Amino acid sequence: MRTTRTARTTRTARTAAALVAVLALAAGCSGSGGKDSEDKADDSQSGKGVSTPRLKIAMITHSGEGDTFWDIVRSGAKQAAAKDNVDFLYSNDKEAKGQAELVQAAIDKKVDGIVVTLAKPEAMQAVLGKAKAAGIPVVSINSGSEFSQKYGALSHIGQEESVAGEAVGTRLAEEGRKKTLCVIHEQGNVSLEQRCAGVKKTFKGTVENLNVDGTNAPNSQSSIEAKLQADKSIDAIVALGAPIAALAVKAKDGAGSKAEIATFDLNAEVVRRLKAEEVTFAVDQQPYLQGYLAVDELWLYKTNGNVLGGGKPVFTGPALVTEKDVPQLEKYTARGTR
User: Could you list the pLDDT tens digit for every one of the 338 residues in the chain?
Assistant: First the structure.
């Protein structure tokens, strides 16, 4: 019997469809994942994780340039932004006036939410009032938790700085230290002052604060070294940030001091120094969480009316880590999440 052109066409189409199905099944069973898996992985980073409308969220911090801590905060924020279909805008200014102006610029752009630090809270009060008047929700992170609700923020995400300082003071006292040098690398930053005050509250010996310019590494190192040379009774140094811890190690060596070094915050270098036992312990406030949760909270609030912590601070720390924690920490710091 003769096969008609229509029948041949139909069989060809069926054969092609079957072949496509087989190839698709083979790709789906591939152990390597293939291009399809790569595309799906890319989708999770490109705002295709949710189907909610595109939002624009601005984060404005008091620090950030060349600071590994804020690199980790941004890493968390960007991850949440990718998942939540958020256009993430980041800016920073170490001057309080400049930071307030950046918040005003975000308000003018009619962003859907603002994440802000309150290191110098008084300078932020008026502009955060403007954000509230414009109907823009605000979440504060990292610093100024006691001012957060007062200034109209949904909540604060970070560690309680005084409590963190107390944990450090207690640990140093248990180790029998007698005199601690607490290095403040940014004058006027309420969070740093609270940390040193917390250390002083629980430390059994003497605590002396030393103000240095954290933006000038050579001068900061020289100031710490000079203090150690002038006062041999100092047997502990508390750095309030990971970059200062590295300078303290160098200053200690230069002064021939035997002081123990503890630090707030982690980065890859601090983990290396923990491993080498150049730094005894570090206070981890989990900056990745601060960035991630802040963006995620604003998305939840805008899409579902949720508020984390019922308006109370959401704590991300403190946690004291030592050389025993290095194996796990190395993996996370290598990818920029701790």
Answer: 444 444 434 444 443 333 333 333 333 333 333 333 333 333 434 445 788 999 999 999 998 766 788 999 999 999 999 999 999 999 999 899 999 999 999 999 999 999 999 999 999 999 999 999 999 999 999 998 999 999 999 999 999 999 999 999 999 999 999 999 999 999 888 889 999 999 999 999 999 999 999 989 999 999 999 999 999 999 999 999 999 999 999 999 999 999 999 999 988 999 999 999 999 999 999 999 999 999 999 999 999 999 998 878 999 999 899 999 999 899 898 888 88
CA distances in angstroms from 218 to 37, 221, 243, 314, 334, listed in the order given: 48, 5, 12, 36, 27
3-state secondary structure of 157: strand
Cα gap 100→333, rounded to integer Å: 31
Q: CATH number of the domain that 141 lies in?
A: 3.40.50.2300
Whether pTM exceeds 0.85? no
Tell me which residue range forms the domain holding 139: 55-160+287-317
Cα-flanking dihedrals φ and ψ of residue 187, to 5°? -65, 140
Q: What is the DSSP string of 177-193?
A: --EEEEEESSTT-HHHH
The set of residues, in sequence order, having a beta carbon less than 8 Å from that of 244 and lying 6+ positions away, is 183, 185, 212, 214, 220, 263
Same domain? For 151 and 292 the reply is: yes
> Does residue 193 belong to any structural domain of this protein?
yes
Quote the tokens at residue 158. 């970070």
- Side-chain-side CA neighbours of residue 134 (13 Å): 21
The total of structural domains in the chain comes to 2
Please choose, from the candidates 266, 264, 336, the residue with its C-alpha nearest in 3D space to the C-alpha of residue 71: 336
Contacts of 192 (CB under 8 A, 6+ apart): 161, 184, 185, 186, 240
Q: Do 147 and 89 touch, CB atoms closer than 8 A?
A: no
Whether residue 170 is found in the same domain as residue 242: yes
